[in-house]
Design goal:
- Keywords: Signal.
- This is ABC transporter substrate-binding protein.
- By secondary structure, the protein is α/β, with parallel strands linked by helices.
- It folds into 2 domains: about 200 residues, Periplasmic binding protein-like II (D-Maltodextrin-Binding Protein, domain 2); about 100 residues, 3-Layer(aba) Sandwich (D-Maltodextrin-Binding Protein, domain 2), CATH 3.40.190.
- The chain has 16 helices and 10 strands.
- The strands form 2 sheets. It has a 5-stranded mixed beta sheet, with helices on both faces. A 5-stranded mixed beta sheet has the order 7-6-8-5-9, sandwiched between helices.
- Helix 2 crosses helix 12 and helix 11 crosses helix 16.
- The protein starts with a helix and ends with a helix.
Length: about 350
C-alpha cells in the first residue's frame, strides 16, 4: 500500500515537472517569436501625430506582432519618395500626395487605408502680439506660408480666401522655403505672419518669437489631413499586416480619446525630448479641443470631397480622382467591428 502511494506521488511530481517545463518552453517561444517588421516614414515630427506615438509607446503595435520602426522624412515629396522607392512600407503623410502620384500615371498607386488626423494641424503665428485679431490684418503684410502644393499651404490659401483675402494679391506670400526651414526663417526675421505646426508654434510663443492668433484647423473643417498609406501591391501581398497595423492605430485612437491631455503628453514625451512637458500638454489639449485627432481610422467620402475642393481652390488638383480609387476602408471597418 505504501509503495503504491509512493509510486503515485512520484508520478505526480514527474507530471508537474513536465507540465512546468512545457509551460516554460511555451513562454520562451512566445518571447522569442519573431515580430514582423514594418517601416513607417512620417512627413514630420509633430505632437499633431500623438496617436501614432501612443501606438508605439504603449506597445499596441507589438501586441499585434509588429516591430515598427519610425523615420522622419521632412516634406511630402521626400516621404512619398521613400514609400515608392521601397525605403518604407507605410507612409504617414497628407492624402493629397496619393492624388499627385496617381495623376502622374503610377502603375502601383498609393492607397489611403487609415486616417490619423482629421483637421489641419497648423496655426497662424504673428510676430507681434495682437489683442484683437482679425484676418484683415494680413492684408499688405508678408506671410510665410508652407511649401507649394502641400496640404498646409492649400488649407492656408483656402482659409485666406474664406475671409476675403486673395493670397496672391492682397499680401506678399512666401512659399519657396523648404519645409524644415520655415520656422528658422521666421525666427531670423522673415515675414510678419507664419503658418506653423505644433509644438513649434507654442515654443515660439513661450520664447517671445511669435504669438498664436488663429487655428487653420478650426477654420477649414474636416479633411483627411494625414493618413497611413501604402502601395497597392504591398497591401495586396500583406493584407494581414495592414489589418494588424490598422488595429494598433485604432487602439491608440481610442486610448487618446479616453485619456487626458496630461496623460497623452506623458505617453509621447520620449518622442519630444527637448519639449517642455507643459507645452506638450497645452498642445495636446489644443488639438483635442478642436477635434484634430481622428477617433477611428475611417477616411469617409465627405472628407475626401473636402480635400479635393481645397486642392481645386488652390489650383493644385491635377485631376478628379474618385474616392474608391485611392481609399480602402476595408481594414478600418474590420478592426472597428471586432
Amino acid at each position: 500500500m505504501k509503495k503504491s502511494v509512493k509510486f503515485s506521488f512520484s508520478f505526480l511530481l514527474i507530471a508537474i515537472l513536465m507540465f512546468s517545463l512545457a509551460a516554460c518552453n511555451s513562454n520562451d517561444d512566445a518571447k522569442t517569436k519573431k515580430l514582423e517588421k514594418v517601416r513607417i516614414a512620417e512627413v514630420t515630427r509633430s505632437i499633431f501625430y500623438a496617436p501614432q506615438y501612443v501606438a508605439l509607446s504603449k506597445g499596441f503595435f507589438k501586441e499585434e506582432g509588429l516591430d515598427v520602426t519610425l523615420t522622419t522624412t521632412p516634406g511630402g515629396d521626400k516621404t512619398m519618395t521613400a514609400l515608392i522607392s521601397g525605403g518604407a512600407d507605410v507612409a504617414l503623410v497628407g492624402s493629397e500626395t496619393s492624388i499627385y502620384v496617381y495623376a502622374q500615371g503610377a502603375n502601383d498607386p498609393v492607397i489611403n487605408f487609415a486616417q490619423l488626423t482629421q483637421t489641419d494641424g497648423t496655426f497662424l503665428v504673428a510676430r507681434d502680439k495682437i489683442d484683437n485679431f482679425s484676418w484683415d490684418l494680413l492684408k499688405g503684410k508678408t506671410f510665410l506660408g508652407q511649401r507649394k502644393g502641400g496640404m498646409p499651404q492649400m488649407v492656408g490659401e483656402f482659409v485666406l480666401k474664406k475671409h476675403g483675402i486673395d493670397p496672391h494679391q492682397d499680401l506678399t506670400l512666401i512659399q519657396n522655403i523648404d519645409f524644415a526651414n520655415i520656422a528658422n526663417a521666421f525666427a531670423s526675421g522673415t515675414g510678419e505672419f507664419v503658418q506653423l505646426f505644433e509644438p513649434t508654434a507654442s515654443i515660439f510663443e513661450k520664447e517671445g518669437k511669435g504669438h498664436i492668433v488663429a487655428s487653420f484647423g478650426k477654420e477649414s473643417g474636416h479633411v483627411p489631413y494625414t493618413c497611413f498609406m501604402a502601395k497597392e501591391s504591398f497591401i495586396k501581398k500583406n493584407n494581414a499586416t495592414i489589418e494588424k497595423f490598422t488595429r494598433a492605430v485604432y487602439k491608440a485612437q481610442q486610448w487618446v480619446e479616453s485619456h487626458s491631455a496630461e496623460e497623452i503628453a506623458k505617453a509621447v514625451e520620449s518622442y519630444f525630448p527637448d519639449t517642455d512637458p507643459q507645452i506638450m500638454k497645452t498642445v495636446v489639449e489644443r488639438y483635442k479641443s478642436q477635434g484634430s485627432f481622428a477617433t477611428d481610422p475611417i477616411l469617409d467620402e465627405e472628407e475626401w470631397t473636402n480635400l479635393k475642393n481645397i486642392m481645386n481652390e488652390a489650383g493644385e488638383l491635377p485631376k478628379d480622382v474618385d474616392y474608391k480609387t485611392l481609399v480602402n476602408t476595408e481594414f478600418a471597418e474590420k478592426v472597428m467591428k471586432k
